[in-house]
Amino acid sequence: MNKFTYGIHTVTEILHRYPLMVKSVYLVKPFSNNRLLTILNKCIQYKIRVNFTTKKLINRLTNNGVHQNIAAEVSEVQYNTENDLEKLFYKKNLIFLVLDMIQDTRNFGSCIRTACSAGVDAIIIPKYRSVKINSVSRKVSCGASEIIPIIRVTNLARTLMKMRKNNIFVIGTNEYSKEILYKINLNCSVALVIGGEKAGIRKMIRKCCEQLVRIPTISSFSSLNLSVTAGIGIFEIIRQRKFNNY
């Protein structure tokens, strides 16, 4: 099954890393950006079919997304598996971002972009009742969805317990926790669990966490967007390692 993705940066990244995924590219002439010419040359190099078309058609293909006059028909993404996850366990100082049943594709794309920029080893999501990679998350991630491994698992609780057995410190975020993120030693392999937009981390997943932490806020309004929470948590891990606070 093929789907459309769009945006100059996103299409460029897919062509660079996975050109075989691209079935065809739709472009509007005259080019509004010199990078579109670069993409055209890449398509010629990889013998990818190019369709010169109208902005109206690309609007329809992308559901009126911010497409920058380009769309690409791509193969459906192939997720990494639990076997791929286990192959990482021998490494030291791993960072995993675990997203427990988030639903918003824009939040997902933001998390992917942040995790990729921080060098997170993989993102883990449940296989069922969870967001998937689509054209919106690809666009929001600015192509990062084609770089960072995204692992889908059938049983998230079982996966977290397996990670704990392999000396990965599993922590979850909870605004009511007494423990503050910045006071926890994160200078080790860490799996940071972030809950969904409405209910947060599910009870069964909270029980799998070795520690629940909160991010202190200044005002009485303590609710943070989950992608912001993910970014703060990930870069606190990076900060502790880089500056050797522990």
Structure description:
By secondary structure, this protein is α/β, with parallel strands linked by helices. It is built from nine helices and ten strands. It starts with a strand and ends with a helix. It is elongated, with a radius of gyration of 20 Å. It folds into two domains: 2-75, 60s Ribosomal Protein L30, Chain: A (2-Layer Sandwich); 82-243, SPOUT methyltransferase, trefoil knot domain (Alpha/beta knot), CATH 3.40.1280.10. α1 (8-17) packs parallel to α2 (34-45) and α5 (105-117) packs parallel to α9 (226-243). The strands form two sheets. It has a six-stranded parallel beta sheet with strand order 7-6-5-9-8-10, with helices on both faces. It has a four-stranded mixed beta sheet with strand order 1-4-2-3. The protein has helices at 8-17, 34-45, 55-61, 82-86, 105-117, 135-140, 156-165, 203-206, 226-243, and strands at 2-6, 22-28, 49-53, 70-75, 95-100, 122-126, 150-153, 169-173, 190-195, 211-213.
